[in-house]
Automatic annotation (TrEMBL):
Coiled coil region boundaries: none
Domain of life: Eukaryota
Family annotation (InterPro entries): AB_hydrolase_fold, Peptidase_S9_cat, Serine_Prot_S9B/DPPIV
Domain Peptidase S9 prolyl oligopeptidase catalytic span(s) in chain numbering: 110-313
A biological process term (GO) from this entry: proteolysis
Name used for this protein in its record: Peptidase S9 prolyl oligopeptidase catalytic domain-containing protein
Pfam families the record matches: Peptidase_S9
Molecular function in Gene Ontology: dipeptidyl-peptidase activity; serine-type peptidase activity
Length: 321
């Protein structure tokens, strides 16, 4: 650190895309961070505001658990006074990930902006267990994955609905991928009264089927936490899924190298045994992340149509015609 004479500054915010600059450190002293800085070069200039992109609003609230929870909300772009709008909760919720921060989301989460332009409220919340909040916060689901996250997400939705009358809690959908897909399923079995539709991408459905290095880090060995593994595995609780059709859509790449397709396969077996309806979209040539552009386009359109059919945004219906 003492011999450092240059540094790179990277900056973005919810409203401004990334900019990267190079600075030279001047003067003398043992701590370079306390010395003068001189602008040297621009490595990446921010293009400024992105046309058609409306940044989300950041919010926070004190939860019943004693933690302050943080989220962001995309308002419908054509918000009309007195009208209620369907809501999509976009979720990850697992360890080592933080979705809510003051960084530019325009490219990675442009889907959320698109949904807002089509008449949806879109909510993102970091529940207990997400990162950069300290050991107590991140360790909240130690030995009990799937048992605390939805409680925080529902509390966030109820907080926003009490504050904003345009949120229709009778039309709430949830969507996520990987751990977010897993929690989308958990939401539907734990709070079917809140979540009308769940769209689960590449979900873990049985923890004993997943990577032991990851799973046992948080859940311990299954022999010492049998009940936790049961409560955290949606495949073992298939009888709790709703009996009404068009409430569950599963998406999965057949070549998934991370969350193997067997997770979806075994869940389907238990759903059939329990007489529960489901909708399924398989991507035969895709792995854990969708890489082929045509598959990505198909996924985005299928997601929109499923929401439109089952949550009913009039704007989405009109624009899709």
């Amino acid at each position: 650190m003492q011999h450092c004479d240059m540094f790179i500054s990277r900056f973005s915010s919810q409203t401004l895309p990334h900019a990267v600059h190079l600075f030279k450190i001047k003067g003398t002293g043992p701590d370079p961070s306390q010395r003068d800085k001189e602008f040297w070069a621009t490595l990446l200039e921010s293009p400024g505001a992105v046309p058609g992109y409306v940044a989300p609003e950041m919010f926070s609230f004190p939860s019943r658990t004693g933690f302050t929870l943080y989220g962001m909300m995309y308002r419908p772009h054509q918000l009309q006074p007195g009208k209620k709008y369907p809501t999509v909760l976009y979720i990850y919720g697992g360890p080592q990930v933080q979705l809510v921060n003051n960084r530019f989301k325009g490219v990675k989460y442009f889907r959320l902006n698109t949904l807002a332009s089509l008449g949806y409220v879109v909510v993102v919340l970091d529940n207990r267990g997400s990162c950069h909040r300290g050991l107590k916060f991140e360790g909240a689901f130690k030995y009990k994955m799937g048992q605390v996250e939805i409680e925080d997400q529902v509390e966030g939705l109820q907080y926003l609905a009490a504050k904003h009358s345009f949120i229709d809690l009778d039309r709430v959908g949830i969507h996520g991928w990987s751990y977010g897909g897993y929690l989308s399923l958990m939401a539907l079995i734990q709070r079917p009264d809140i979540f009308k539709v769940a769209i689960a991408g590449a979900p873990v459905t049985l923890w004993i089927f997943y990577d032991t290095g990851y799973t046992e880090r948080y859940m311990g060995h299954p022999d010492q936490n049998e009940h936790g593994y049961y409560l955290g595995s949606v495949a073992m609780q298939a009888e709790k899924f709703p009996s009404e059709p068009s409430r569950l859509l599963l998406l999965h790449g057949l070549l998934d190298e991370n969350v193997h397709f067997a997770h979806t396969s075994i869940l389907l077996s238990f759903l059939v045994r329990s007489g529960k309806p489901y909708d399924l979209q398989i991507y035969p040539q895709e792995r854990h992340s969708i890489r082929v552009p045509e598959s990505g386009e198909h996924y985005e359109l299928h997601l929109l149509y499923y929401l439109q059919e089952n949550l009913g945004s009039h704007i989405a219906v009109t624009k899709s015609l």
